[in-house]
UniProtKB/TrEMBL annotation:
GO terms for molecular function: flavin adenine dinucleotide binding; NAD(P)H dehydrogenase (quinone) activity. This is NAD(P)H dehydrogenase (quinone). NAD(+) binds at G180, S181, G182, V183, T184, G185, A186, E187, G267. It comes from the Bacteria. Its cofactor is FAD. InterPro entries: FAD/NAD-bd_sf, FAD/NAD-binding_dom, FAD/NAD-linked_Rdtase_dimer_sf, Pyr_nuc-diS_OxRdtase, Pyr_nucl-diS_OxRdtase_dimer. Residues 344-452 form the Pyridine nucleotide-disulphide oxidoreductase dimerisation domain. Belongs to the class-I pyridine nucleotide-disulfide oxidoreductase family. Homotetramer. It catalyses: a quinone + NADPH + H(+) = a quinol + NADP(+); a quinone + NADH + H(+) = a quinol + NAD(+). Its EC number is 1.6.5.2. Residues 3-323 form the FAD/NAD(P)-binding domain. FAD binds at K48, G119, D308.
Length: 464
């Protein structure tokens, strides 16, 4: 029986463990924080739980546009809609623990051993887990990553925070300054603005989320500004310091921004230090990320890696697929190399931004030839009924064959709507095939089939 030891219990680790156990391997997962790892306990699951709460509150704030008015609570209070942050944060933490417990039950049911300890490589076939030494035929490293810390903005857990510390606050921040306007910064900035905080978003680039679809980022920034957020573009933070009752963020150009709290969202660094990787022959890049090929192999025989510690694409879904691919390859199963071109991603802002396949910037740069159609969400009947005016559906296809290359959806629950486009990209469907697929009327998904219809090529009669 093949013995597999997995260092790290996040999506890259526990999904690999489940597949390995189902294929008959003897599996041990070494995880010091608990099943699910940081993704479930401190990062993805807690943040999306918080965001779900903020979306509900924003819906209540927007309900007056649909003729629904708030007249007061059960005690006759005529005040506004208030977020009870101790209760919100309690629910966030409890839900994360419950999800971790569910994963633990699933692993136990499959016969996977979980060792609660820090793990490291002694050599490519030996893992040290606490005071145990475990021999393995295959090792998978899935240790994730940690929020990047700037020396000039050291988090203190009270006023200067990482996203792993923000759920410990007892009150809603009066004025939250978010440093970093990438995906994480945009998500938290939008969530806390909807929950009731004054929010300043500090972006070092011309626009927020500079690596995402430009049209989508423009829509979101417009929504944020309309909701009262202060978005500071071209404003790189130099330092963050505490004051008597808050924080002051100093920008490189000398300007300052003052608030009650500061949330640092300036990237991630891999959890690869002190694991004995290089001594075991595992190659790291200059940033400390583990170098892997498309079947998750490292440079050390029998050692694979998955998830954020590889820096391939920091998504839970990608980590899970890397872990599964590692197991399939190690156990000699049929396996397809990781195809990043088919990865669907989502930004859990309000509205959400989902994308799959090629990006428009690649089309505009001449790297890919494609036809493009963009339909505003405001023309969709279901969107009108629900009062959703911001967003769009964008679809890309090859000019002659009509094969769908990708798309972008900006809408409420875009994470659900993108699946149709993702299936089309994965299965190389054409716009004709998608256009001839029934969509419910009225529905948001109707905009996807409508976009496909608009990309259909008119048939030319033969012989003409």
């Amino acid at each position: 029986m093949t013995r597999i030891v997995i260092i790290g219990g996040g999506p890259g680790g526990y999904e690999a463990a489940l597949v390995a156990a189902q294929l008959g391997a003897q599996v041990t997962v070494v995880e010091q924080d608990g099943p699910g790892g940081a993704c479930v306990l401190t990062d993805c699951v807690p943040s999306k739980t918080l965001i779900a709460t903020s979306v509900r509150k924003q819906a209540l704030l927007d309900a007056s546009m649909l003729g629904v008015h708030y007249t007061g609570g059960p005690d006759g209070d005529a005040g506004g809609v208030i977020a009870d942050m101790p209760l919100v944060n309690k629910r966030v933490k409890e839900l994360a623990q419950a999800q971790s417990a569910d994963i633990a039950v699933r692993l136990a049911a499959e016969g996977v051993e979980v060792v609660r300890a820090a793990g490291r490589l002694v050599d490519p076939q030996v893992v040290r887990a606490g005071d145990r030494t475990i021999r393995a035929d295959v090792v998978i490293v899935a240790t994730g990553a940690t929020p990047r810390i700037l020396p000039s903005a050291e988090p203190d857990g009270e006023r200067i925070l990482t996203w792993r510390q923000i759920y410990d606050l007892e009150e809603l921040p009066e004025h939250l300054i978010v440093v970093g306007s990438g995906v994480t910064g945009a998500e938290f900035a939008g969530a806390y603005r909807s929950l009731g905080s004054e929010v300043t978003l500090v972006s070092s680039r011309d626009r927020m989320m500079p690596n995402e679809d430009a049209d989508a980022a423009e829509v979101l920034e417009e929504v944020y500004r309309r909701r009262g957020m202060n978005v500071m573009g071209r404003s790189r933070a130099e330092s963050v310091k505490r004051t008597a009752d808050g924080v002051v963020v100093t920008l490189e150009d000398g300007r300052t921004a003052e608030g009650s709290h500061c949330l640092m969202t300036v990237g991630m660094i891999p959890n690869t230090a002190g694991l004995g990787l290089e001594e075991a022959g595992v190659t790291l890049d200059r940033g400390g990320f583990i170098q892997v090929d498309k079947v998750s192999r490292t440079s050390a025989p029998g050692v694979y890696a998955a998830g954020d510690c590889t820096g391939v694409l920091m998504l839970a879904s990608v980590a899970a697929m890397q872990g599964r691919i590692a197991v399939w390859h190690a156990l000699g199963e049929a396996v397809q190399p990781l195809r990043l071109a088919t990865v669907a991603s989502n930004i859990f802002t309000d509205p959400e931004i989902a994308a799959v396949g090629v990006a428009q910037k690649a089309i505009e740069a001449g790297e890919i030839e494609a036809n493009v159609v963009k339909l505003p969400l405001a023309t969709n009947a279901r969107a009108k009924m629900q009062g959703f005016n911001d967003g769009f559906v964008k679809l890309f296809c090859r000019p002659h064959t009509g094969i769908i290359l990708g798309g972008v959806v900006v809408a409420p629950r875009a994470s659900e709507l993108i699946l149709a486009v993702s299936v089309a990209v994965q299965q190389r469907l054409t716009v004709d095939q998608l256009a001839h697929t029934f969509a419910v009327y009225p529905s948001m998904s109707g905009s996807i089939t409508e976009a496909a219809r608009r990309l259909m090529q008119p048939m030319t009669p033969s012989g003409i």
